[in-house]
C-alpha cells in the first residue's frame, strides 16, 4: 500500500530493542490443560468462545421473539414461552455476552498492551471465568423447570413469590450473584494489573485507549456490582425468608427495587459500551494510518462518562410517581452525558479525517459502529427529555434505542475487535471476503430490524407484548423488522463460519499484520506463554511506531526490496539476539 | 460494477426501499397525539427535538461518510499526522452543550402546560370535585384508575383515597367514559403488580405502582364527542405485568356532556340492580334453596 511509509520492523538485523518472542515452554496439551490454565491468553480465549456461544443462544432467542411478532395476533408461542424468551434473551445478552465478552478481550489484551507477562492474579482470573460458567449453567438450568418471566429487570412485585413462585426467578438471582462475583473478581484483577504492571515508561498518559476503557469498566463494575448483589439478595429473602423489602403491603417499596436496580443498571450500560469505545479508539488510527485525534480528550471523556453514568439512573423511571425536581435532575444529568459522548464521536471522525483509510474488515465494523451508535446516542436525547419519555418509555422506540446503543456500541465494536485481534490470538487472518460480506449483511440487517421499531413505538406498541393488534402500521413494521432480524442473523453466521474456517486455514498473520501501534503487536502471533522476552521502554502512546522508526534509523532507511512473507517475518521477529 | 461492489449496493437499496416505503405513509415519525393538549405539547417538544436531531444527524453522518470516501487510501496519499486541535475540540464541546441547553430550555417552557391541568371549557362538565392535582378553578372530573392483573378498573369518584365514598361510586372496567371539553384528572394506583396507564393520543404514560398514587390528566376536544357513541381512544398497559400484559387493554370513550351524564346515571342504576340481584341471590343461597 502506497500510503505506508514506515518500513516493517522485521527488516533489521542489528541487535535493537525490538524483538521478541520465541517459545519458552512447550504449551501444555489436551483439554485438562485448558481447564486448569491460569494463562491470561487461554482464559481470554475461553471467555471469548463461551460468550460467543451465549451470543448465538441469545440470538436464537431473539429470532424466535421476532418470529412470534412477525404478524399481528400470532399464536406461534404461548404468552408464557414468549415472556421466558425475552427474559432469557435480555439476560443472556447483558450478563452472559456483552459484559463478559469485554472481559475476554481485556483478559487477552490488557497484559499484552501494557507489556505485562500475565494478569496480577492469574488464579483469580481463572476463578472469574469459572464463576461465569457457573452463572450460565445455573441460569440455563432453569430450562429444565421454568425459566423466569420477569424481563431482565425483574421488577418487584412481579418478581415476588406471590406472582412468580417458579424457581426461574431464583435461578436468575443466582445468575446475577455468580456473574456479578465473576465480574467483580475480574475487575479487581484488571485494576491491579493496570495500576501495577505497566512496562517501564508507560505512564498514565501513554496507556492505550483500550486499556483506559477497561480500567474505567473495572472501576464501574466495582462500584455498581455490590448494589445489585445486595438488591437481589433482598429479593431472595423477600421470596423465601419472609422479609418485606419490596412488599408495599408491609411497609416495603417496589420503587426501592427500581432505584437499586437502575443504580446498577445504568452504569451497566456504560460497562457494556465503554470497552467497545476503547476497541474503536484502537482500530481507527491503525487503518487510517494516523494518530488518534485528541488522545487526552478521549481518555478523559471515558472517565467523565463513567462518572456521570453513576448519576443518571432514575431516567429509567420517569413514568414512576416522582417529584418534578427529581425528574429535572435526572434529565439534566442525562443531557450532560451527551457532551463527552459527542466529543468521542467527533474525535473518532477527526481521526479518519485526512488519513489514508484502508478498507479492511475491522475498519468497516468501526465505521459501522460510529454511524449506528450515533443514532442510538441521538435517540437517547429524546428519552432523556422526560415529558417526551412519557410517550416513549416502555415502547418499541426504547427497544430500538437500546439496541442501537448495544448493537452499535458493543456488538459492532466487538466484531471490529474480533477481526482486528484474531490474527494475534490465532496466528491467522480472518478471511476478508467473508468478513466484508458479514459486515454488510449485519449492517443492513441491523438497520432494517431496528429502525422501523422506532415507528412501532411511536404508534403505540408497548414492549414485552407477545402479540399486538392489527392497528395502524404495526403489521408491516413488524414484518420488516423480522425480515431484518434474519438478515442480521445470517450476517453473524457468516462471521462464525469465517472463524471456523480461518482457525485452521487462514493466511498466516505474522506478528504485526496491520502495522499497528500498540505493544501486543510486538510479540509473535499467537504470543508465547510469557508474552515477551524483552519489554521495550515505552516512549509514547504508540510504542510500535517508535520501534519501527528506530529500525528505520538504524538500517539507514534501507529496506529490503523483497518483502518478507508473513512466515518469514514471523521467524525474523523471533530475533535470536533476544534469547538472553 | 463488479459483483463484489454490487452486493453491498443492492443490499443498501433493499434496505432503503424497505425503510422508506412505510415512511411515505404519515405518522411514522412522531408520537400519537391529537386527543388532548398535553399529548399535543409533548408532540411539539418531540418534533422540535426531531428537527434538531435530524440536523445533528445529517451533519455528523455526512462528515463521517465524506471522510470515509474522501480519504480512502490511494497511491501517493500521505496521512496527516495530526494529534489534536484544542480550539476545535473546545468548539465542538461547547457546541454540543449549547444544543442541549436549548432543548432543556424548550422543555422547561412547555413543562407547565404538559404537567398542569387547565380548566374545563365553558361547555364542559363543571364539577366542584376535589383532587390532589387541581386545575386553576379547582374543578375537574376525577377518576380513580386501578390496575389489576389484567384489567383496569375505573371509579368515578372525587376522592380516591376515601374507600367509604368510593364504595357507592359508579365504576367500570376496561372502558372509561368521559365527557369532552372537560378536564379529567386521574389518580393512578395498582393493587397487585406494577402496571402503566397509557392512551397514546391522550398524553404520556404513568406507572401504576402498588403503594403509590400517580397522577395525570387529559382534556378531549369537543369534536370527538360530536357523533353519538363518541370516539374511542385505545391503549395498552405499558409495564410488564405478567403473562397477559399484552391483553391488558385500556379504552377511553369520549362522549358529549349530556351523553356522559346519561351514561353515568344508567351505570348507577345498573350497578344498583346488579347489587340487589346479587343480594337476593346470596339470601337465597344462605336460606338453603337450590333454585337460583
Ligand atoms: C441479534 C439481534 C437481536 C434481535 C433481533 C433482538 C431482538 C429483540 C427484541 C424483539 C426484543 C424485545 C422483546 C420485547 O420487548 O418483547 C429484545 C429485547 C432485548 N434485547 Fe435484543 N435483540 C438482538 C440483539 C441484542 C443484543 C446484541 C443485545 C445486547 C446486549 C440485546 C439486548 C436486549 C435486551 C436487554 C432486551 C430487553 C429484554 C427485556 O425486555 O427484558 N439484544 N431484543
Ligand atoms: Cu398491566
Ligand atoms: Cu402490563
Automatic annotation (TrEMBL), chain A:
CC per GO annotation: plasma membrane
Cytochrome oxidase subunit I profile domain boundaries: 34-539
EC number of the protein: 7.1.1.9
Key words, A-Z: Cell membrane, Copper, Electron transport, Heme, Iron, Membrane, Metal-binding, Oxidoreductase, Respiratory chain, Translocase, Transmembrane, Transmembrane helix, Transport
Stretches that traverse the bilayer: 45-65, 85-114, 126-145, 171-197, 209-236, 256-280, 292-314, 326-350, 362-386, 398-422, 434-456, 476-501
Pfam families membership: COX1
Location (main, coarse): membrane
Localisation: Cell membrane
Superkingdom, taxonomy of origin: Bacteria
Entry's Gene Ontology BP terms: electron transport coupled proton transport; oxidative phosphorylation; respiratory electron transport chain
GO molecular function, one term: heme binding
InterPro entries: Cyt_c_oxase-like_su1_dom, Cyt_c_oxase-like_su1_sf, Cyt_C_Oxase_1, Cyt_c_Oxase_su1_BS, Cyt_c_oxidase_su1_bac
Region described as Disordered: spans on this chain: 561-580
Family per record: Belongs to the heme-copper respiratory oxidase family.
Function (record text): Cytochrome c oxidase is the component of the respiratory chain that catalyzes the reduction of oxygen to water. Subunits 1-3 form the functional core of the enzyme complex. CO I is the catalytic subunit of the enzyme. Electrons originating in cytochrome c are transferred via the copper A center of subunit 2 and heme A of subunit 1 to the bimetallic center formed by heme A3 and copper B.
Name of the molecule in the record: Cytochrome c oxidase subunit 1
Species, as recorded: Baekduia soli
Gene that specifies this protein: ctaD
From TrEMBL, chain B:
Keyword set includes Transport: yes
Cofactor(s) recorded in Swiss-Prot or TrEMBL: Cu cation
Pfam families named in the record: COX2, COX2_TM
GO molecular function: copper ion binding; cytochrome-c oxidase activity; oxidoreductase activity
Cofactor note: Binds a copper A center.
UniProt entry tagged with the keyword Membrane: yes
One of the protein's GO biological processes: ATP synthesis coupled electron transport
Cellular compartments annotated: Cell membrane; Membrane
Cross-referenced PROSITE patterns: COX2_CUA, COX2_TM
Residue span, Cytochrome oxidase subunit II copper A binding domain: 138-266
Broad class of enzyme this protein falls into: translocase
Cytochrome oxidase subunit II transmembrane region profile domain residues: 20-118
Region (Disordered): 273-292
Catalyzed chemical reaction(s): 4 Fe(II)-[cytochrome c] + O2 + 8 H(+)(in) = 4 Fe(III)-[cytochrome c] + 2 H2O + 4 H(+)(out)
Chief subcellular location: membrane
Transmembrane segments: 42-69, 90-109
Signal sequence bounds: 1-26
Keywords of the record: Copper, Electron transport, Membrane, Metal-binding, Oxidoreductase, Respiratory chain, Signal, Translocase, Transmembrane, Transmembrane helix, Transport
Superkingdom of source: Bacteria
Its EC number(s): 7.1.1.9
InterPro entries tied to this protein: CcO_II (IPR045187), CcO_II-like_C (IPR002429), Cupredoxin (IPR008972), Cyt_c_oxidase_su2 (IPR014222), Cyt_c_oxidase_su2_TM_dom (IPR011759), Cyt_c_oxidase_su2_TM_sf (IPR036257)
PANTHER family assigned to the protein according to its UniProt record, in alphabetical order: CYTOCHROME C OXIDASE SUBUNIT 2 (PTHR22888:SF9), CYTOCHROME C OXIDASE, SUBUNIT II (PTHR22888)
NCBIfam families named in the record: CoxB (TIGR02866)
Function description: Subunits I and II form the functional core of the enzyme complex. Electrons originating in cytochrome c are transferred via heme a and Cu(A) to the binuclear center formed by heme a3 and Cu(B).
Family label: Belongs to the cytochrome c oxidase subunit 2 family.
Protein's UniProt name: Cytochrome c oxidase subunit 2
Organism: Baekduia soli
Gene: coxB
Amino acid at each position: 500500500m502506497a500510503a505506508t511509509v514506515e518500513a516493517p520492523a522485521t527488516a533489521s538485523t542489528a541487535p535493537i530493542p525490538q524483538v521478541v518472542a520465541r517459545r519458552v515452554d512447550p504449551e501444555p496439551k489436551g483439554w485438562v490443560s485448558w481447564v486448569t490454565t491460569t494463562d491470561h491468553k487461554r482464559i481470554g480465549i475461553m471467555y471469548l468462545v463461551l460468550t460467543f456461544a451465549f451470543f448465538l443462544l441469545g440470538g436464537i432467542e431473539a429470532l424466535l421473539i421476532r418470529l412470534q411478532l412477525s404478524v399481528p395476533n400470532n399464536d406461534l408461542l404461548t404468552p408464557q414461552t414468549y415472556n421466558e424468551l425475552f427474559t432469557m434473551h435480555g439476560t443472556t445478552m447483558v450478563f452472559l455476552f456483552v459484559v463478559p465478552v469485554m472481559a475476554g478481550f481485556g483478559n487477552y489484551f490488557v497484559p499484552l498492551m501494557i507489556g505485562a507477562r500475565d494478569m496480577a492474579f492469574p488464579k483469580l482470573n481463572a476463578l472469574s471465568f469459572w464463576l461465569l460458567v457457573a452463572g450460565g449453567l445455573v441460569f440455563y438450568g432453569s430450562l429444565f423447570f421454568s425459566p423466569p418471566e420477569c424481563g431482565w429487570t425483574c421488577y418487584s412485585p412481579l418478581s415476588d413469590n406471590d406472582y412468580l413462585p417458579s424457581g426461574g426467578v431464583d435461578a436468575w438471582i443466582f445468575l446475577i450473584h455468580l456473574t456479578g462475583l465473576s465480574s467483580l473478581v475480574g475487575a479487581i484483577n484488571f485494576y491491579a494489573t493496570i495500576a501495577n504492571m505497566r512496562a517501564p515508561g508507560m505512564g498514565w498518559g501513554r496507556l492505550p485507549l483500550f486499556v483506559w476503557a477497561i480500567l474505567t469498566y473495572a472501576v464501574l463494575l466495582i462500584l455498581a456490582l455490590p448494589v445489585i448483589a445486595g438488591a437481589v439478595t433482598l429479593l431472595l429473602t423477600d421470596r423465601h425468608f419472609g422479609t418485606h423489602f419490596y412488599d408495599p403491603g408491609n411497609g416495603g417499596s417496589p420503587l426501592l427495587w427500581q432505584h437499586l436496580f437502575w443504580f446498577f443498571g445504568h452504569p451497566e450500560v456504560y460497562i457494556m459500551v465503554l470497552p467497545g469505545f476503547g476497541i474503536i479508539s484502537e482500530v481507527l488510527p491503525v487503518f487510517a494510518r494516523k494518530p488518534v485525534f485528541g488522545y487526552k480528550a478521549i481518555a478523559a471523556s471515558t472517565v467523565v462518562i463513567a462518572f456521570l453514568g453513576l448519576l443518571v439512573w432514575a431516567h429509567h423511571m420517569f413514568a414512576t410517581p416522582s417529584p418534578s425536581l427529581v425528574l429535572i435532575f435526572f434529565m439534566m444529568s442525562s443531557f450532560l452525558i451527551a457532551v463527552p459522548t459527542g466529543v468521542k464521536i467527533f474525535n473518532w471522525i477527526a481521526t479518519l479525517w485526512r488519513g489514508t483509510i484502508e478498507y479492511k474488515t475491522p475498519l468497516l465494523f468501526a465505521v459501522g459502529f460510529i454511524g449506528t451508535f450515533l443514532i442510538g446516542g441521538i435517540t437517547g436525547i429524546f428519552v432523556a427529555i422526560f415529558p417526551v419519555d412519557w410517550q416513549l418509555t416502555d415502547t418499541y422506540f426504547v427497544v430500538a434505542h437500546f439496541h442501537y446503543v448495544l448493537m452499535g456500541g458493543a456488538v459492532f465494536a466487538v466484531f471490529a475487535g474480533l477481526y482486528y485481534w484474531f490474527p494475534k490470538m490465532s496466528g491467522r487472518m480472518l478471511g476478508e471476503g467473508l468478513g466484508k460480506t458479514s459486515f454488510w449483511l449485519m449492517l443492513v440487517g441491523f438497520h432494517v430490524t431496528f429502525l422501523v421499531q422506532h415507528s412501532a413505538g411511536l404508534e403505540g406498541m408497548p414492549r414485552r407484548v407477545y402479540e399486538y393488534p392489527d392497528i395502524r402500521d404495526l403489521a408491516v413494521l413488524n414484518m420488516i423488522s423480522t425480515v431484518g432480524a434474519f438478515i442480521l442473523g445470517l450476517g453473524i453466521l457468516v462471521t462464525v463460519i469465517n472463524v471456523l474456517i480461518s482457525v485452521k486455514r487462514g493466511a498466516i498473520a505474522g506478528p504485526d499484520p496491520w502495522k499497528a501501534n500498540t505493544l501486543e503487536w510486538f510479540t509473535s502471533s499467537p504470543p508465547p506463554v510469557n508474552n515477551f522476552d524483552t519489554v521495550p521502554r515505552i516512549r509514547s502512546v504508540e510504542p510500535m511506531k517508535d520501534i519501527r522508526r528506530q529500525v528505520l534509523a538504524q538500517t539507514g532507511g534501507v529496506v529490503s526490496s523483497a518483502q518478507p512473507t508473513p512466515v518469514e517475518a514471523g521467524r525474523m521477529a523471533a530475533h535470536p539476539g533476544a534469547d538472553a | 460494477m463488479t459483483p463484489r461492489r454490487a452486493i453491498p449496493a443492492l443490499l443498501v437499496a433493499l434496505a432503503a426501499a424497505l425503510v422508506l416505503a412505510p415512511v411515505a405513509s404519515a405518522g411514522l415519525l412522531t408520537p400519537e397525539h391529537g386527543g388532548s393538549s398535553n399529548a399535543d405539547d409533548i408532540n411539539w417538544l418531540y418534533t422540535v427535538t426531531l428537527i434538531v436531531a435530524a440536523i445533528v444527524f445529517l451533519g455528523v453522518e455526512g462528515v463521517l461518510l465524506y471522510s470515509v470516501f474522501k480519504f480512502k487510501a490511494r497511491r501517493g496519499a500521505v496521512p496527516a499526522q495530526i494529534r489534536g486541535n484544542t480550539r476545535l475540540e473546545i468548539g465542538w464541546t461547547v457546541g454540543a452543550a449549547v444544543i442541549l441547553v436549548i432543548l432543556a430550555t424548550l422543555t422547561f417552557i412547555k413543562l407547565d402546560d404538559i404537567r398542569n391541568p387547565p380548566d374545563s371549557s365553558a361547555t364542559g362538565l363543571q364539577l366542584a370535585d376535589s383532587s390532589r392535582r387541581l386545575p386553576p378553578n379547582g374543578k375537574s372530573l376525577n377518576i380513580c384508575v386501578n390496575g389489576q392483573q389484567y384489567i383496569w378498573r375505573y371509579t368515578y369518584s372525587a376522592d380516591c383515597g376515601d374507600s367509604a365514598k368510593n364504595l357507592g361510586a359508579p365504576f367500570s372496567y376496561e372502558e372509561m367514559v368521559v365527557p369532552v371539553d372537560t378536564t379529567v384528572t386521574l389518580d393512578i394506583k395498582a393493587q397487585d403488580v406494577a402496571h402503566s396507564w397509557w392512551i397514546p393520543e391522550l398524553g404520556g404514560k404513568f406507572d401504576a405502582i402498588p403503594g403509590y398514587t400517580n397522577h395525570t390528566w387529559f382534556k378531549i376536544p369537543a369534536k370527538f364527542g360530536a357523533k353519538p357513541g363518541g370516539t374511542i381512544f385505545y391503549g395498552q398497559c405499558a409495564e410488564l405485568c405478567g403473562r397477559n400484559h399484552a391483553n391488558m387493554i385500556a379504552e377511553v370513550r369520549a362522549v358529549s356532556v349530556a351523553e356522559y351524564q346519561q351514561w353515568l346515571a344508567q351505570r348507577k342504576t345498573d350497578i344498583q340492580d346488579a347489587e340487589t340481584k346479587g343480594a337476593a341471590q346470596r339470601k337465597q343461597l344462605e336460606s338453603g334453596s337450590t333454585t337460583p
